[in-house]
Write a structure and sequence with these properties.
This protein is about 20% helix and about 20% strand. The protein is of the alpha/beta class. The protein has one domain: Vaccinia Virus protein VP39 (Rossmann fold, 3-Layer(aba) Sandwich), CATH 3.40.50.150. A nine-stranded mixed β-sheet has the order 1-2-9-8-3-4-6-5-7, covered by helices on one side. Helix 6 links the parallel strand 8 and strand 9.
């Protein structure tokens, strides 16, 4: 029997391979996750400069990031329920995407590898599954400006190179249908922290135990100001 790595009134976190623990999270209602993009990302030491805390430290890469198989397997197991899935413009899109949102990243992001004068400062969020019909009042562009979405990358404070601002995840979850949130690629736990702050139940799975420990510490802290959390 697999027991949660961390659990409270809102958050349940499991440590392990999300596909092997599919029975723990596929019963949820809405998928909100930031999977490996399939771009083979890695970072050499010192390549990030000094503009971002922790950016001068190398990173060997993200597990299962050489292709989109892990993401696609999760989406197959998830079925037709609503999902919001982060991705890259440099990798194949999932099948059956209904809409694409654009996250304009913080002002210190997207410099590395940008050789033409324009920063690589946009990530995609794929909208899939069955969503309720609603009046189109929301912009498809989400910006990391101001206190809600945070103005700088949270990577340095969370220890995860692709950590998302809690405010960004809060904005996404607020627009999701009701029910339990699932994040099978929990990373540093921003989805879980945001869901808890909104009073939503959330189930997460993370492969790396070091990140599970970071998530447990973040979720065990009271959330007073979403804008101040990275």
């Amino acid at each position: 029997m697999v027991t949660p790595y961390y659990q409270d009134d809102h958050v349940t976190l499991y440590h392990g391979d999300c596909l092997g623990l599919a029975d723990k999270w596929t019963s949820a209602d809405v998928l909100v996750t930031d999977p490996p993009y399939g771009i083979g990302w890695k970072r050499g030491a010192g390549t990030g400069g000094r503009r971002q805390k922790g950016s001068d430290v190398g990173h060997a890469g993200i597990a299962n990031d050489n292709d989109t198989q892990a993401r696609d397997d999760v989406l197959t197991g998830w079925g037709s329920k609503p999902s919001l899935v982060f991705g890259s413009v440099s990798a194949p899109f999932p099948t059956n995407v209904k809409h694409v949102l654009y996250w304009q990243k913080p002002t210190n992001a997207g410099v590395m590898g940008a050789l033409t004068g324009w920063r690589k400062d946009v990530e995609l969020i794929f909208v899939s599954g069955t969503w309720p019909k609603r009046t189109a009042t929301r912009s498809s562009v989400l910006r990391s400006f101001g206190s809600i979405c945070n103005s700088t990358s949270p990577a340095g404070s969370t220890g995860h190179p692709h950590s998302k601002p809690v405010g960004l995840m809060q904005n996404l979850i607020e627009d999701c249908p009701p029910g339990v949130i699932a994040d099978p690629f929990a990373g540093s736990g921003s989805t879980l922290v945001a869901a808890k702050a909104l009073g939503r139940r959330v189930i997460g799975v993370e492969l790396d135990e070091a990140y599970c420990e970071i998530i447990a510490k973040r979720c065990s802290q009271e959330v007073f100001d979403l804008g101040a959390i990275a």
